[in-house]
Specification:
CATH architecture: Orthogonal Bundle
Structural class: alpha+beta
Largest sheet: 3 strands, antiparallel
Number of domains: 1
């Protein structure tokens, strides 16, 4: 489970980034292939600047990588970041399942 504050902040950034539907869609698209920010901006009913901000949040969370090619900024998804998110959720599920098992054991003792 997440212990130190640096890890907590990283997990918070990760789940904050994934909390928005547009950002999740950008992650899916960039996992399928590299896209320029301008190409991504054409896909959404919002300004280029808004898409650029979404990409910045995703980049800060480690969900996408950015690289410059000429005047374009290219974005690609990082599957390892999604695996980290999955690992955190798996750890939380383990805690939850352990509690349910303990409750079941206590109920069996009382019967």
């Amino acid at each position: 489970m997440v212990v130190d504050s640096g890890e907590r902040r990283a997990v918070d950034r990760l789940f904050h980034a994934l909390s928005d539907g547009t950002r999740r869609d950008i992650v899916v698209r960039t996992l399928q292939g590299e896209h320029s920010v301008s190409a991504l901006a054409r896909l959404y009913p919002m300004s280029f600047a808004a898409v650029q901000k979404h990409v910045a949040v995703l980049h800060e969370a480690g969900l996408v990588a950015k690289r410059r090619q000429g005047r374009e900024q290219l974005v690609s998804g990082d599957v390892e970041a999604l695996r980290r998110a999955g690992a955190v959720l798996d750890a939380l599920e383990d805690v939850w399942r352990a509690r349910v098992e303990r409750m079941g054991a206590l109920l069996e003792e009382d019967s």
